[in-house]
Design goal:
Layout lengths: L6 H10 L22 H5 L3 H6 L13 E4 L15 H6 L1 H7 L3 E4 L27 H13 L3 E7 L8 H6 L13 E2 L25 E4 L4 E4 L14 H16 L4 E5 L15 E5 L5 E3 L10 H12 L7 E4 L6 H5 L10 E2 L2 H4 L6 H12 L8 E2 L9 H5 L5 H14 L3 E5 L20 H6 L42 H5 L5 H14 L1 H5 L1 E5 L5 E8 L2 E8 L5 E3 L3 H5 L6 E6 L12 E3 L4 E6 L1
Parallel strand pairs: 1-2, 1-13, 2-3, 3-7, 7-10, 10-11, 12-13
Antiparallel strand pairs: 4-6, 5-6, 8-9, 14-15, 15-16, 16-20, 17-19, 18-20
The protein binds 1-deoxynojirimycin and magnesium ion.
């Protein structure tokens, strides 16, 4: 599933494969990435130095690196084949050494597991599959010792159909909780005929968004799975109940929330039909524009309310929104007037889906000049979309490209959000047979839509059969064969591995003032090379990313870089062996090379 707003785009991308947009590049030289102990390596601070300077104080989230953990797949501590909280706690040292500052954990609340935790049946408890509340409290304490903050998932649009609120709501038309969800009569309904759904609204996961409920003879609305009825955010009691959820977790010491599916909170009260678009989706439905069920202005009142609730607590709580906004103007609205969220996830940049210097330049320029002057949040992988190793890789130079993407993610001005295993170059490993699929959309849309299991496979800790993830012989999802080579154990030993590249870059982000605080300014207009400066006070860092399979030689005049006076570039990181001092008038960039250099 490609998590983009346009259904048309989604279908096209899914149909032609995830790396559809990547340049088809073959027969070009594969460059040896061994740095051979070159000075640029030693110029970088060691990861442990970096870990000592974790961000603290107000606006900590500006300098933080967030790491998303899918708890089912990170580390199993009790041998049942499913990851758990104790497993996460056991791996905090790894995360600390890596140099990350906060973990966002996807839902661990009690859930029937239809949408693997995103169908919550109790917001203020821990699913026994993941452990106990004591385990959770211990995780927060242990994380804090390592300066790692814990961000929870706040799934606000819908509950599970097994949540007691919904069980009450569906029990009778006059139940006090009836109006906590969205119930409507069918069209042409009679005492004996359920008629048709109230309108043409479609579920993101396929087919009508309305589900007939025989007992009370009405339809309820669900933007996602049938088992995920939407809460009615027009009911003040829902607000009070959900605010209580925020209080519950804030009191337990969490650092904030990633708010799920935020743009879907409200629907048109007049139930107008959504407009159709050409073509059909992977489920065989007519494509539709979610005009009346997405991004209604009332969403911002809720975001302001969430902000007010969390701001009662110390520590500058962070709010991250999952809202796949179509452009920077829509994205910027999520900041409000500084009274909504600090970090709206940027899906435009995540979903460029091709190594295109002009496209990245255009989007980064737009976000740099966003009218709200907000802090961007960049990511390339998460539990809903194919991993970046495949999505940006060309099938030949994927490891090189993975490092290039790491440089892009970790040297731009924004808060990076990593996804577990991206630091290893974990790849998407889709199920091969429909009978092995877990994610229901993969069953419904097979074979066009294989679901999201492929990006949720267990973390690859070592090269053993279970990858160090579990002692179970059959973990909940199979261990990808790539774990033989791509694991924490194997990559730790190789100074030029993807893992050590991430560590080096994460350390640089902390040690270089310009990478921490600097503005970002694009340089030049090259069709292959995305180049930008990060600049604060007297400190300037120059980043060059050759997004093509061609060797490129670039030449910059001094005034292009810093208003004149610069004569040398000192590499801080280079993906290929390079001199210790480079003239800006003659920069040679091998295919897919990345160079991060201090401007002097
Ligand atoms: C977004 C989550 O990231 C996704 O995994 C989930 O299926 C939907 N929201 C519904 O909660
Ligand atoms: Mg377990």
């Amino acid at each position: 599933m490609h998590w983009t707003k346009s259904v048309v785009t989604t279908v096209v991308l899914c149909a032609i494969g995830v790396s559809a947009g990547a340049p088809a590049v073959f027969g070009c030289p594969i460059h040896d990435e061994v740095m051979g102990g070159k000075p640029q390596t030693s110029a970088s601070p060691s990861p442990s130095q970096a870990a000592q300077s974790q961000p603290t104080g107000p606006e900590w989230w500006r300098h933080a690196v967030i790491y998303e953990i899918y708890p089912r797949s990170f580390q199993d501590s009790d041998g049942d084949g499913v990851g758990d909280i104790k497993g996460i706690t056991a791996r905090l040292d790894y995360l600390h050494d890596l140099g990350i500052d906060a973990i966002w954990i996807t839902p661990m609340y009690p859930s029937p597991g239809i949408d693997y935790g995103y169908d919550i049946s109790d917001y203020t408890a821990i699913d026994p599959e993941y452990g106990t509340m004591a385990d959770f409290d211990n995780l927060v304490v242990e994380a804090k010792k390592r300066n790692i903050r814990v961000i929870m998932d706040y799934v606000i649009n819908h509950t599970s159909d097994q949540h007691k609120w919904f069980l009450e709501s569906r029990s009778s038309r006059d139940n006090p909780k009836r109006d906590w969800y969205i119930w409507r009569d069918g069209k042409g309904e009679t005492a004996t005929d359920k008629g048709r759904p109230p309108n043409n609204w479609q579920s993101w996961f396929g087919h009508s968004a309305w589900q007939w409920d025989e007992k009370t003879r009405q339809y309820y609305y669900h933007y996602f799975y049938v088992q995920q009825p939407d809460l009615n955010w027009r009911n003040p009691e829902v607000h009070a109940a959900m605010d209580g959820v925020l209080d519950f977790w804030m009191k337990r010491g969490v650092a904030g929330f990633r708010i799920d599916a935020v743009s879907r909170l409200y629907e048109d009260p007049n139930l107008r039909d959504d407009p159709y678009l050409p073509g059909r989706n992977a489920y065989g439905d007519r494509n539709i524009q979610h005009k009346y069920t997405d991004d209604l202005p009332e969403v911002h009142d809720v975001l302001k309310e969430v902000r007010r609730v969390v701001d009662k607590y110390p520590g500058d709580p962070v709010l991250v929104t999952e809202a796949d906004e179509p452009n920077v103007q829509a994205l910027s609205k999520m900041y409000g007037n500084g009274d909504e969220v600090q970090l709206p996830m940027d899906f435009q940049i995540a979903d460029v889906n091709e190594l295109s210097a002009p496209r990245f330049r255009e989007l980064f320029n737009e976000i740099e000049s966003n009218s709200a002057h907000g802090q961007p949040e960049y990511f390339f992988s998460n539990h809903d979309q194919p991993r970046q190793w495949d999505r940006y890789g060309d099938g030949v130079h994927n490891d090189q490209i993975a490092k290039l993407m790491a440089v892009l993610e970790l040297t731009t001005r924004g808060t990076p959000q990593m996804y577990y295993g991206e630091e290893l170059g974990m790849r998407t490993t889709d199920p091969v047979r429909v009978e092995d699929v877990h994610d229901p959309i993969g069953k419904l849309g097979w074979p066009k839509e294989k679901g999201r299991d492929g990006e949720r496979t267990p973390m690859q800790w070592d090269s053993s059969a279970e990858a160090g993830f579990s002692t179970a012989t059959k973990p909940w999802l199979p261990i990808p064969s790539s774990s033989a080579k791509y694991s924490v154990e194997a990559e730790s030993k190789d100074p030029n591995s993807i893992l050590n590249t991430y560590k080096r870059l994460l350390a640089l982000r902390k040690s270089e003032l310009a990478l921490r605080d600097g503005v970002q300014l694009s340089v030049g207009n090259d069709p292959d090379v995305f180049a930008y400066l990060r600049k604060t006070g007297d400190e300037t860092v120059f980043v060059l990313l050759n997004m093509s399979s061609r060797e490129r030689t670039l030449s910059f005049k001094p005034d292009e870089l810093q208003g004149g006076g610069i004569s040398r570039l000192t590499p801080l990181y280079s993906s290929t062996p390079t001199a210790t001092s480079i003239s800006p008038a003659h920069i040679v960039l091998p295919p897919f090379a990345a160079l991060v250099a201090k401007v002097q």
